[in-house]
Design a protein that fits this description.
Layout lengths: L4 E7 L12 E7 L8 E9 L4 H4 L20 E8 L9 E4 L6 E4 L7 E2 L16 H14 L6 E4 L5 H12 L3 E6 L2 H9 L5 E4 L5 H8 L4 E5 L5 H7 L2 E9 L17 H6 L6 E4 L9 H13 L7 E5 L4 H9 L6 E5 L2
Parallel strand pairs: 8-9, 8-11, 9-10, 11-12, 12-13, 14-15
Antiparallel strand pairs: 1-2, 3-4, 3-6, 3-15, 4-5, 5-7
NADP nicotinamide-adenine-dinucleotide phosphate binds next to helix 2 and helix 3.
Length: 339
């Protein structure tokens, strides 16, 4: 096999507060020879996802943590460059959990590794609208929120990869869709490009009053992506029979222990008249991914779903891009192009 040098980014130390560049380290290793059943992926695109921050803590109740010296976890799209597996051939484009590295040795036991479907869509959508964020929106809406025409849906992190898809699905279902985002530019995009009815900037001093005015008939569905103060304000507007799919807690990820922050599910359950709410992981519907993928691909090709990406060029820029993502300096889905 050709000799490959693998540029990787590993965890130098568990963060002791907000993530720092010094928490990461670049490391170069040689790629070993393939065993029977294995194939080598040259990664081309890396997805940066807020929840990965929780995995960098020493321990977490979300998913198992990344240990010091481990390659940072992450979803990738790449191309097979060598193979000893009859089902993965040189030249195949594949999705895998390769992590923050140039090359990844995979086999069929690797979690969720699969070849990309042959469709006329850019490869990056498989990290975005037809990947984890899109599926999360699809299952959170169809399996938990179950929107009805005429209902009011509020979505936090509305310009992000998950929230933007949630709101567009809500519009297709006939809901009044109220987005919440962190800048005027993001709010304009959410209304003008994605078709939400209204979007409110949570940094505005009168955010609470704007939110109340935007929901004159109360809130039937709150799609929770962030937690914190926004949950408290939306909770005051929930109608009887409201549903709250608890998808994420982004306001609380960038700290040394997420456990210290109250989880949105605990908060909503503690209300005097609690809405139907539960934390979910998209992988609960793993066996139904063919259903979500077919729906999301069709909606994209029909122009019914739109998305936006921020792409940085070069694996070495991933740590800064991830810090920027945690501070909401990105716009849409954050992706790294690996040289
Ligand atoms: N449950 C699952 O299986 C699953 C799967 C995938 C993702 N998720 C979760 O879904 C959520 C959205 O993911 P994404 O990839 O689409 O991320 P994203 O929306 O691109 O990024 C997170 C956003 O959260 C918002 N945010 C952060 N701190 C906030 C605060 N204090 N108050 C209000 N908003 C705040 C920011 O929005 P602005 O940019 O508008 O400021 C930020 O951009 C995340 O919580 C993620 O962990 C869950």
């Amino acid at each position: 096999m050709t000799h490959y040098e693998n540029n990787t980014i590993v965890l130098a130390k568990h963060p002791e507060g907000p993530l720092q560049l010094s928490d990461f380290r670049n490391q170069t290793t040689s790629v070993r020879a393939l065993e029977p059943g294995e194939f080598l992926i040259a990664n081309q695109w890396l997805s940066l996802d807020p929840y990965i921050r929780s995995r960098l803590n020493y321990s977490t109740d979300y998913v198992s943590s990344v240990q010091c010296g481990d390659v940072i976890a992450g979803e990738t799209v790449g191309v097979v460059v060598a193979s000893r597996n009859p089902n993965f051939n040189k030249g195949d484009k594949v999705f895998a959990y390769s992590g923050w590295q140039q090359y990844h040795i995979s086999n069929e036991r690797d979690f969720i590794v699969h070849t990309l479907p042959q469709v006329d869509l850019p490869d990056t959508v498989f990290l975005n609208t037809v990947g984890t964020p899109g599926r999360t929106a699809y299952f959170g809406m169809t399996r938990i929120a179950k929107p009805q025409a005429g209902e009011t849906l509020v979505v936090s992190a509305a310009s992000g990869a998950v929230g933007s898809t949630v709101g567009q699905i809500g519009k297709m279902a006939g809901c009044r869709v109220v987005g919440i985002a962190g800048s005027e530019k993001k709010c304009r995009y959410v209304v003008d490009e994605l078709g939400f009815d209204i979007c409110i900037n949570y940094h505005d001093s009168d955010f609470k009053h704007q939110l109340r005015r935007a929901c004159p008939a109360g809130v039937d569905i709150y799609f929770e992506n962030v937690g914190g103060r926004i949950s408290v304000l939306v909770a005051q507007l929930l109608n009887d029979g409201a549903r709250v799919p608890v998808c994420g807690n982004a306001a609380n990820y960038d700290r040394a222990s997420e456990i210290a922050a109250s989880s949105p599910a605990d908060f909503f359950s503690s209300l005097p008249n609690p809405p139907a709410n539960r934390f979910f992981l998209v992988t609960e519907w793993f066996k139904d991914y063919p259903e979500s993928d077919a729906w999301l691909i069709n909606a994209l090709r029909d122009g019914k779903l739109k998305y936006r990406e921020t792409i940085v060029d070069g694996l070495e820029k991933a740590p800064q891009a991830f810090i920027d993502l945690l501070n909401a300096r990105h716009f849409g889905k954050q992706i790294v192009k690996i040289k």
